[in-house]
# Entry
Amino acid sequence: MARQRQATAEDHIQETITAWRRERPGLDLTGMAVVARLLRVSHRLEEVQDEFFSALGLKPGWLAVLAALRREGEPYQLTPTRLSEEALISTAGMTNRLDRLEQAGLVQRLPDPDDRRGVLVELTVDGRELVDAAVDAHRGLSKRLLGSLETGERDELDRILRKLLLPLDRGETPQPASLFPTGRVTPRRRRS
# Structure
């Protein structure tokens, strides 16, 4: 079923591009095809990783928090705000995630000695052992997921994706209205 789904997905992208080329000859759709493929790859990788991490006892999104704490080095502490920035989620989402991680015994909240109202999140011994095991296992998974690419292709893909991602991370994305010559997003209605 997964093989059939994968083949169908790839065919669907090509079928979509082919249909647009038939309906709008001369229209440059290379950007659409690349973005569609990147989105599909991202979705499939996320599915595989979620399944993989679930087998290790990790819920979606937990590894981002645990890994941020682990990368910080001893004493493996960060503020919830810094964790939100590292994991790219809202502070409200981080609070919910920290509640679940704390219940699982993987992190603990401590008073911040430098801020009477502040809190530090600290990785527990169990959390450190789990994140280390997950990162080691993830290295192997990543190699298998990219196994269809040669070393040079992986390096080139990494370089290209980095080049694509940097302006997006800086917020340099076009606004919808700027993509239309008239500045209008909705089509004009014809008068009858």
